[in-house]
Write a structure and sequence with these properties.
The complex is a heterodimer of chains A (381) and B (129). Helix content of chain A is 36%, strand content 19%. The chains are: A alpha/beta (381), B mainly beta (129).
């Protein structure tokens, strides 16, 4: 396999922008990434596009508008891990020598989607949906298990949101650029106890893209390529094999493969981005990623280790909670954030001295499975 | 009376004469793993010799959440729960429980869903009816 580098990143502002539509958003992200890489669109040889609530062949529509056509384009969907899966698709193609230069893009226009202003609905054949389940409730049930098994409190969950908004307030592309207090988070409308409104990610429009190439090609464009040390994608394990809700088999396995592929230890990672659709979820990922010892996720959170300025900041971008969550864009976006951090380009939210970073996304609810998929990339400067 | 309402899904559960609900499940002949809804393969051991069985009505509360948002068939507030039924996590609303606690004993009984035109099931306090 060839070593792969990221040489360009682009992200639109995230927010509610129904007037912009998916084409404008996706094409802006691609143009920004190409400009960041200093690459002519005609040099792009392959691409992958992640989207869920948009037309057929979305990738072709986006790429053609930016001057890219007649190349290999793959459209992917993997729920919230879709963006990461697009990144992995291009990474694999380049690593295995299919082509040298590719673009991964993720886009979602939630405000113009069929579910605009609504919750992500359960699948139509979903038994639990008929009996009163919904996405925030599944995370509330996880939160309750964290309280039972790890001694978590409502304040701990609120702290995750406080931490996300502290970082997001420093991110010019975030949907919510406002700090919140624990009291404000706890006093916001109760959704599914213990999860309050300010512990839920919003519906968001936005896009992100990145340019990847083989390392030998990367040197032609930049002196500071960000290396992709590993990429892993693992589908969810069977629910009957998941003893409790506070750990995902696919999360642990994707992490194991990513660390092994990169030849690094969790303790080496300096900055992390994870899927935090609901505040309690972030805490689950601490243990599955090996950022702290099993059983110690709550002490780890309370120590401040995962806040900006801590030992291993998690979601310095603001995360889905503050930045917003255009479903299929987030997995590309959080790889872009790690690139920015490793370049030392993240401005006031910069994690000082980060040499290794990890981007993770968990996605999807599938009957009989713990989750849809977990996808992880480990990057190095 | 609930016996006259159509079940929200066929082949999912049975309301016994005592009003309590038995879930229509499968049990692996090789390793004993239980599946609900019914399954044709055992993903725990790889076995394919599964026999029909019934589980419930007894359950133990595993996790719960007081829900304050409307969902498909429910108006808030209501209590949602995961109950362990023969070790299997089963989702259902929890009815007539004011002070939920992990580990409390519950039982499955029928519950009319939404506008009352279809029958589902829910967890209720253990042996109170």
């Amino acid at each position: 396999m060839r070593e792969v580098a990221i040489i360009g990143i682009g992200q639109t502002r995230f927010g509610k922008m129904p007037e912009r539509g998916f084409r404008e958003l996706g094409q802006e992200a691609i143009r920004l990434a190409l400009a960041d890489a200093g690459i002519d669109p005609r040099k792009v040889q392959g691409g992958a596009c992640s989207r869920l609530y948009i037309d057929i062949a979305t990738g072709q529509a986006l790429f053609s508008g930016t001057g890219i056509a007649g190349i290999e384009v793959t459209n992917v969907e993997n729920a919230c891990a879709g963006g990461s899966t697009a990144v992995r698709t291009v990474w694999k193609d380049i690593a295995h020598g299919e082509y040298d230069i590719g673009v991964a893009v993720g886009v979602e226009s939630m405000t113009t989607s069929p579910i605009a202003g609504k919750m992500i609905p359960p699948a139509s054949d979903d038994i639990e949906g008929q009996l009163g389940n919904a996405v925030p409730i599944t995370f509330a049930l996880i939160a309750r298990r964290l309280m039972e098994m790890r001694g978590a409190t409502a304040q701990d969950f609120a702290q995750v949101s406080v931490k996300a908004h502290q970082a997001g307030a420093l991110n010019p592309r975030a949907q919510y650029r406002k700090e919140v207090t624990i009291e404000e988070v706890l006093a916001s409308r109760m959704i599914a106890d213990p999860i309050t409104l300010l512990q839920c990610c919003p519906n968001t429009d936005g896009a992100a893209a990145l340019v990847m190439c083989s390392m030998d090609v990367a040197r032609r464009f930049t002196a500071n390529p960000i290396r992709v040390l590993s990429s892993s994608l693992v589908s969810g394990g069977f629910s009957v094999n998941q003893p409790d809700l506070i750990s995902y088999e696919c999360g642990r396995e994707a992490a194991r493969r990513a660390y092994e592929g990169a030849g690094v230890d969790p303790a080496d990672i300096g900055v992390v981005e994870v899927h935090d659709a609901f505040a309690p979820e972030e805490i689950v990922h601490y243990e599955d990623l090996g950022l702290c010892a099993p059983g110690e996720c709550i002490d780890f959170l309370r120590s401040g280790a995962t806040a900006l300025g801590g030992r291993v900041p998690v979601n310095p971008s603001g995360g889905l909670l503050s930045l917003g969550h255009p479903l299929s864009a987030s997995g590309v976006r959080n790889v872009c954030e790690i690139v920015q951090q490793l370049r030392g380009d993240a401005g006031p939210r910069q994690v000082e001295g980060a040499k290794l970073g990890l981007a993770q996304m968990l996605g999807g609810a599938v009957s009989g499975l713990e989750a849809g998929a977990c996808c992880i990339h480990i990057l190095a400067r | 009376m609930s016996a006259h309402i159509e079940h929200f899904r066929e082949d999912l559960f049975r309301v016994a004469a005592d009003g309590r609900v038995r879930l229509l499940a499968s049990r692996c002949a090789d390793c004993g793993q239980v599946y609900f809804p019914r399954a044709t393969i055992c993903v725990a051991c790889g076995g394919s010799d599964l026999a029909d069985t019934e589980i419930g009505p007894d359950a133990e509360l595993f996790s719960f959440s007081r829900v304050h948002m409307p969902t498909l068939n429910f108006k808030p507030p209501y209590l949602a729960g995961l109950g362990l039924v023969e070790g299997l996590r089963v989702f259902a609303p929890v009815i007539d429980v004011d002070q939920p606690a992990v580990g409390m004993k519950l039982e499955l009984r029928a519950l009319a869903l939404g506008d009352g035109s279809r029958l589902g099931y829910a967890f209720y306090p253990w042996r109170t009816a």
